[in-house]
Specification:
Blueprint: E1 4-9, H1 16-26, E2 31-37, H2 48-62, E3 70-75, H3 79-85, E4 90-95, H4 98-114, E5 119-124, H5 134-142, H6 153-163
Parallel strand pairs: 1-2, 1-4, 2-3, 4-5
Length: about 160
């Protein structure tokens, strides 16, 4: 039986921190569903379609990861509903710092209350990636800074085009 894990997030844009979590999870699970959240209460830089395109290019064009093991989808439902759709009982979440933990702990608890068969697994990104956030990447590129250490070539191109 294939073990499927759901990795939800906004990925606005995807960073090496996200990618590190995806790479680590590929060692643990047969298939990863990267769920690009499209809830309307967020102020996204990129549309849902743009974010899916950016994630696909980063993972498959830039990094040449295995397309058979990763699926990128948009969702605007509860993460627990996405789990049901893909027959998964695992939600992946990345942790960068202790400050992330309280929010992630509450979120995991709420997901568990919504579906008590779901487990949340927290993965730490490597030390070099722990400081990276999509928010900071957007701010740096907006101010014409160098973001090569934070995300992939195609993502950088998309960000620069957005700010031109």
């Amino acid at each position: 039986m294939n073990k499927v894990a759901i990795y939800p997030g906004t990925f606005d844009p995807i960073t090496y921190g996200h990618i590190d979590v995806i790479k680590k999870s590929l060692k643990l699970f047969d298939k990863i569903v990267v769920g690009v959240s499209d809830v309307s209460n967020k102020n996204y830089l990129f549309s849902s379609d743009e974010r899916i395109d950016i994630v696909n290019k980063a993972l498959f064009k830039d990094l040449k990861l295995n397309k058979n093991k990763i699926t990128v989808v948009s969702f605007s439902s509860l993460t627990t509903d996405l789990c049901k759709k893909y027959k998964s009982n695992i939600i992946l979440r990345g942790l960068r710092a202790v400050s992330d933990f309280e929010y992630e702990f509450q979120l995991a608890g709420m997901n568990r209350k919504l579906n008590n068969n779901i487990e949340t697994i927290f993965l730490m990104s490597d030390v070099e990636s722990q400081i990276i956030s999509s928010k900071f990447v957007k701010e740096i590129v907006k101010l014409n800074g160098d973001i090569k250490k934070f995300t992939t070539k195609s993502t950088i191109k998309s960000l620069k085009e957005k700010y031109e």
